[in-house]
Amino acid sequence: MEFQKNQMIKFKHNSKLLEKAQQAKPELKFEKIVPQRTVEIVPDHEELFGYRVAPLSHRITELNQMAFGKGERVILDLGDHHVGNFQIKIDSVGSPMDASLWLHVVFAELPVELGTIHEDYHGLLSSSWLAEEYLHLDVLPSLLKMPRRYACRYIMLEVLDTSPKWKAVFNEPLFTAESAVSLDQVSKLNSGDSVLDRIDQVSCKTLHDCMQDVFEDGPKRDRRLWLGDLRLQALSNYATFDNQQLVKRCLYLFGGLTTEDGQISANIFTQREPIPDDTFLYDYSLFFVSTLADYFERYHDLTVLKDLFPIAQQQLDLALQLMNQDGQIELNSKWPVFIDWSQEFDKAACAQAVTIYVVKQFLELAKEMNVEVKSYQKILNKLTNFAIEKLYDQQRGLFMSGAEKEFSIASQVWMALAKVLPPAENHALMETTQKELFPISGIATPYMYHHVCAALFETQHSAAALDLIKSYWGSMIEYGADTFWEAFQPENPTFSPYQSMAINSYCHAWSCTPAYLLRKYLKS
Amino acid sequence: MEFQKNQMIKFKHNSKLLEKAQQAKPELKFEKIVPQRTVEIVPDHEELFGYRVAPLSHRITELNQMAFGKGERVILDLGDHHVGNFQIKIDSVGSPMDASLWLHVVFAELPVELGTIHEDYHGLLSSSWLAEEYLHLDVLPSLLKMPRRYACRYIMLEVLDTSPKWKAVFNEPLFTAESAVSLDQVSKLNSGDSVLDRIDQVSCKTLHDCMQDVFEDGPKRDRRLWLGDLRLQALSNYATFDNQQLVKRCLYLFGGLTTEDGQISANIFTQREPIPDDTFLYDYSLFFVSTLADYFERYHDLTVLKDLFPIAQQQLDLALQLMNQDGQIELNSKWPVFIDWSQEFDKAACAQAVTIYVVKQFLELAKEMNVEVKSYQKILNKLTNFAIEKLYDQQRGLFMSGAEKEFSIASQVWMALAKVLPPAENHALMETTQKELFPISGIATPYMYHHVCAALFETQHSAAALDLIKSYWGSMIEYGADTFWEAFQPENPTFSPYQSMAINSYCHAWSCTPAYLLRKYLKS
């Protein structure tokens, strides 16, 4: 049976490495957030996702003057996105409570999640991720302390039933937000451009809300540690909160939980004892090398390097088993490459480029470790030669991918980042990419947009990179983002990888990289 | 506003009496119940309520061999009705849990409650009484301990969602049943008639499950202490469990919580600090006298009598304010009389008879207290004279009620119980009642059926009383009752006072009186 897949994959548990992960576990910081106002969510076809937020006239301090009977509801607005726990005092007015209170509580990052909560859900992900609870309160007054953690800006309290003889009254709502870091730690960008400054703020908030016990991909749903996300979060973290311990912890978690063959899972569940997932992604496994290299570059931490270098090498060796005699990476279905949520482009050239990108970082680490690198140098040449000779179309000045010889933006971007071509040609590659392949379409994630921007910056197209940051991340802000989203396709803004806007994550770490890109490239 | 009614009624809190109620609070007894089997609930139009229980072939010990994905469910059968708390171990099989478990748990006394749980609810009582919970479990394995108390025989575990990669597994379901008493304390009836013996057993079980911190009316819903129910529960208790403390506690609760005018509420909420309801019923208030008299007759407890006699007297005095110059009780809408859930008959004659019944018990108590009773004796005569002269139709040998001069069974029964007529004529009254008004129709509760049977026994119609017990309570058993019901109308068996079979209470204390009637009248 498909669902038993995992029980056939055996994992190692390296207790020495896992102990080091445990030691680096952060103490979370807590902040008390009082909702600022009550609002209504109104259907509005002119809004991106079909709903508008309409403030109500009374103040939040008047909440306890209102009584809620069967079918009545109130929506609290925290004023910003937060991650944490919620509590509220509930009392009754009227006759003594001659029935339980039957309460529906819904937490939403965006209005669309509240607007659609009473509709049937047909998304591809589990409906258990819809952030709603149904509760019976037998005795009032009570202090309702919700036991689960939520990611939200809006909280809807909907009275499903009382009795005709009494109503419910809410008072003292309180959200306790949590994170491993504090926004006070980050100095402002002060770019001189208010749009970029705002993008940077939202980026930092996004990263902040995803920095919990581990770098979570998104606090709304899985709360998992994904390697592809970790790599970008770590880069943004170095430029902002600079929390060394949390990156170290996550590296040790991945290093301590490989399969018996030494392969690193795409992600780890960390809510109780850490459990590696049975999902493996080619690029994500390789990014263990990359994340370790970035970490070492930032902190020169030889202890971590020595502990984890063999595991990094193992990822590369496993990947290189897919290289054929011509130097081509031949992917198979057991170990797909991610690159982006879009399935609209061929990803073979990307896989080739990512491998080159990672081998180069590996060679830097190997030098630090005094490891013999000749064989990897040879491999790098073979990989690069294949890319230039078989994938590069000299006439068009672009890389092609797959049997259909597709020229996708993603292929050019990853080849540019891997610096397969010499600097001048690399610059020209991204020049041609803009001329021939822009405006961008068919890319579904801020994750891939990050790599486009990074490639533009790395090839001295800073103005274009800044324009792209302003238009792409700026659009999300215009659409009402308090934190940046998991998926966003400007030409198709209601795209969901799961076929449901209600299940998308609207605070997703891999979208936080403007904080990194702007700090790295704007100031230089 | 209607729902603020209570805030205008001021209650006294007699702390001395309430302290005595607190001291008599029982220590509950707990019993561990392991479900005996798994079953299906199958729609079946030949069954009374439209559903049939179909046992599944596997054993309960095989439960942990089964895996439940989205939309799959299992129903556990406790084998009998119980009141208490539920726990179960839940684990996952397959890949690591990449989504929360979204679980629906439904508790049911009868199959109809499970069969209709997915239908829209349109009953008159709050939907918050439907015994269902929706739960998210973020981490498995977990021991799920449901925090609320339930009354049930069947427990449905319905997996609303997992993810395609894993399923839920249930193991070690455990129900911890609770009661103030143990069934072991009651000796068997051994009547020689297996139907009566079974009716007695089910009566004792019904009373047992309603004897908690107080005598509850029914453990499924309100769990309230109602005076009308208490009176009958106490009588059955004297004949079976003989728990003096619990009756004493309930008498002190009512006595300690009158209105400022001295009136006793129809019921008290006891889940936290006791709160009297703002519902007042004429007969229920008077039954404080009756319940105190029955208690004194059983235990000769002078302390309780001295503490509570003034409050008993107050109830009578308040009732007698409604007596006009002719000796007629004139009800008003602020203080209606209950008698039965049926609204199909006029209740004025019943109110007259209940008053006479209670005055007679009051006179007994007054003698014990050495209180001057002449005025009450005079009132009794006036009440009785009015009944005989104005309500009794000598030709028909029956009492009539109301402007329409109705001859209802309830009027005859209460006049017989009040012994308005001399013994021979009282015997004839119930003889005529049977001849002219039977077969019974239009009576909706075991509560009123109890009074019919009591009147038959008291007027030496024992055989008819036994036949009625066997046919009425026996029918409920044939329909699948593990405990006796709140409402049952044999000629209209799907009657619900709330227009929903799902919200009826199927373990209701006022239906437990065969245990009392059979022990009192069968053995004499």
From TrEMBL, chains A, B:
It comes from the Bacteria. SUPFAM superfamilies: Six-hairpin glycosidases (SSF48208). Pfam families: Bac_rhamnosid6H, Glyco_hydro_78_N. GO terms for biological process: carbohydrate metabolic process. Residues 35-176 form the Glycosyl hydrolase family 78 alpha-rhamnosidase N-terminal domain. Residues 184-521 form the Alpha-L-rhamnosidase six-hairpin glycosidase domain. This is Alpha-L-rhamnosidase. It comes from Liquorilactobacillus mali KCTC 3596 = DSM 20444.
